[in-house]
């Protein structure tokens, strides 16, 4: 159970980081 919860946490954290990186990249492209 703990491992599954930890994996879910990593997936959620990774998804959040990916969204932030994608948003920053899109903003940078718009700036150029």
Characterize the main sheet.
none
Structural class estimated from helices and strands: mainly alpha
Question: How confident overall, as mean pLDDT?
Answer: 88
* Tally of discrete structural domains: 1
- The count of DSSP E runs of length 2 or more, i.e. the number of strands, is 0
Poorly predicted residue ranges = none
β-strand percent reads: under 5%
What is the overall number of helices? 1
Termini separation comes to 47 Å
Large-scale geometry? rod-shaped
User: What oligomeric assembly is this protein in?
Assistant: single chain
Q: Which value, in Å, is the CA radius of gyration?
A: 14 Å
Secondary-structure element sequence?
H
Helix content: over 70%
Model description:
The chain has one domain (1-32). It contains 1 helix and no strands. 94% of the residues lie in helices and 0% in strands. The chain has one helix at 2-31. By secondary structure, the chain is mainly alpha-helical.
List descriptors.
mainly alpha
Give a brief outline of the structure.
With 32 residues, the chain is an all-alpha fold. The protein has one helix and no strands. It has one domain (1-32).
């Amino acid at each position: 159970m703990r491992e599954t919860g930890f994996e879910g946490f990593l997936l959620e954290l990774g998804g959040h980081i990916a969204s932030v990186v994608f948003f920053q990249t899109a903003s940078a492209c718009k700036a150029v």
